[in-house]
Write a structure and sequence with these properties.
Structural class: alpha/beta
Largest sheet: 8 strands, mixed
Number of helices: 15
Distance between the termini: 45 Å
Helix content: 25-40%
Low-confidence stretches: 8-110
CATH topology of the domain at 131-367: Aspartate Aminotransferase, domain 2
Shape: globular
CATH superfamily of the domain at 131-367: Type I PLP-dependent aspartate aminotransferase-like (Major domain)
CATH class of the domain at 131-367: Alpha Beta
Strand order of the largest sheet: 1-7-6-8-9-10-11-5
Strand content: 5-15%
């Protein structure tokens, strides 16, 4: 593996092969039979183990006064002192048990009474709640449009009409034609189809940035194992790919460049149009992961100049399990599966009609509201960011000024990010570190490391991603809660330098 750009960009940060391998390969879920770690599918490949509450000989009430928890990261002494900062007599998470088969079988979830806490969701980059109107459309399709879209009778043709209507709705969101939309199961499949469908032979050369989503980076790693050569573009300390050295990067064998539109952790918007113009002038296919951009900023694939563009329904307030890939007319793409000529032969298998209908409905709403909603959410994001920086010392924003309007990634020096996430969760706020988990050990964000942050800085960073349900009152409440949690955690932190 070769990472290009360190010697050409003054403020770029490049990983070595070993560092990239650590972040990409060591972050796999535990495979040992006795690991017994349960994973929640939170945000693509990088995951946080679900905390399981196990039986104890002394019973739940016998443990009630102990007030302890186990972080997935080994915080050692820090875990003990930070735990007391946000656990009270009626708020407790018991230690995850990882071990033998007998221990695993004894696991069970225990419910205990807690005071009611209002919930506010600030993790829209992980997933979005399904809009009621979208859910209504999906339910109607599931109950009333149950025919096979490939059938020629009326029931089948009614289903076909619903699928094609949704195809037009998604195409409108992206500025494409309906015939250029291929429905998939989500962003990960769309990215895999785009990359593997273009790079079909050994000794070809493909390019991606080091801050891509794992569904891109892991696919690149697999292609390398199959004999394809890969180069990874460095980013600046703001997380943006430089374009001035692209001419020195491409080879006669380069067939694909894959650069995301907006980063899932920092919201950084990449210079996709400039990269696409360069690549396509040399006959190189351009793929763009637009999962975090579509519906949050206006998207026009024609203006971007890309050949392939991935989106996911559950980032658009549609249900999980449906996505789409824009395929520019004339782009040669090899399917990953065989068994039918569905989706123009690119993706065989009977279409998920209810999911597609829901995604179409969500895309129509996003296209209608994106201009107004991006301004509203952007103002809330700025309010949140300013409030956090003003009320909590030793904080900083990770990322550039030009970002998706709903995203901010903030570093809280001297605070473990996982502890902050749990503390805020107990107060009713859902946020994220964006970090990866593996075998019970949290690894820092590969995006933040690529931007030059230290491991400690990366692990002290929190991603806040806003959406339709958020308002000023929620933002102000989050600022107050974060200030309280940060102060409590820092007072007990062994790494924070107290004045």
């Amino acid at each position: 593996m070769f990472v290009f750009g360190q010697d050409l960009m003054e403020d770029s940060v490049v990983w070595s092969d070993e560092e990239m391998a650590i972040c990409l390969d060591n972050n796999r879920p535990a495979m040992r039979a006795n690991a017994r770690v349960h994973y929640n599918d939170v945000d693509g490949f990088f995951r946080k183990p679900a905390i399981r509450v196990g039986d104890h000989e002394g019973g739940f009430h016998g443990l009630e006064g102990s007030h302890f928890m186990a972080y997935v990261d080994d915080l050692r002494s820090g875990a003990e002192v930070q735990d007391d900062a946000f656990h009270h007599g009626d708020e407790m998470v018991l230690q995850a048990e990882i071990g033998s088969e007998s221990e695993y079988r004894r696991h069970r979830l225990i419910n205990w009474k807690q005071p009611h806490v209002s919930r506010f969701y600030f993790d829209h980059n992980a997933t979005t709640p399904v809009l009621p109107s979208v859910a209504d459309e999906m339910r109607s399709a599931a109950l009333e449009v149950w025919g096979n879209p490939s059938s020629i009778h009326q029931d089948g043709q009614r289903a076909r009409h619903s699928v094609e209507k949704a195809r037009h709705q998604v195409a409108t969101l992206l500025g494409a034609t309906a015939k250029e939309i291929v429905f998939t199961s989500g962003g990960t499949e769309s990215n895999n189809l785009a990359i593997q469908g273009v790079a079909t032979a050994a000794r070809q050369h493909i390019v991606a940035s080091v801050v891509e989503h794992p569904s891109v980076l892991q696919t690149f790693s697999q292609m390398e194992r199959q004999g394809v050569e890969a180069t990874y573009l460095a980013v600046s300390r703001d997380g943006v790919v430089g374009t001035e050295y692209l001419s020195r990067l491409v080879k006669a064998t380069t067939v694909l460049m894959s650069v995301m539109h907006a980063n899932n952790e920092t919201g950084a918007i990449q210079p996709v149009a400039e990269i696409a113009e360069f690549a396509r002038s040399r006959g190189i296919v351009v793929h763009c992961d637009g999962v975090q951009a579509a519906g949050r900023i206006p998207v026009d694939v024609a203006s971007l100049g890309v050949d392939l563009y991935s989106i996911s329904g559950h980032k658009l307030y549609a249900p999980k399990g449906c996505g789409a890939l824009y395929v520019r007319k004339g782009t040669v793409l090899k399917p990953l599966q065989y068994g039918g000529r569905h989706e123009q032969g690119f993706r065989p298998g009977t279409e998920n009609v209810p999911g597609i209908v829901a995604m179409g409905a969500a895309a129509e709403i996003a296209a209608r509201d994106v201009a107004v909603e991006s301004v509203r959410v952007g103002a809330l994001r700025d309010r949140l960011e300013a409030g956090l920086l003003a009320s909590i010392p030793d904080t900083a924003v990770n990322g550039p000024a030009v970002r998706t309007p709903n995203t901010t990634n903030i570093r809280f020096d001297g605070i473990d990010g996982e502890a902050m996430v749990i503390a805020l969760d107990l107060k009713g706020f859902a946020v994220s570190t964006g970090a990866a988990c593996s075998s019970g050990a949290v690894e820092p964000s590969h995006v933040l490391l690529a931007m030059g942050l230290t491991r400690e800085q990366a692990k002290s960073s929190i991603r806040f991603s806003l959406g339709r349900s958020n308002d000023e009152a929620q933002v102000d409440a989050l600022i107050a809660a974060a200030a309280e949690c940060a102060g409590r955690l820092r007072r007990l932190s062994p790494t924070y330098a107290h004045a």
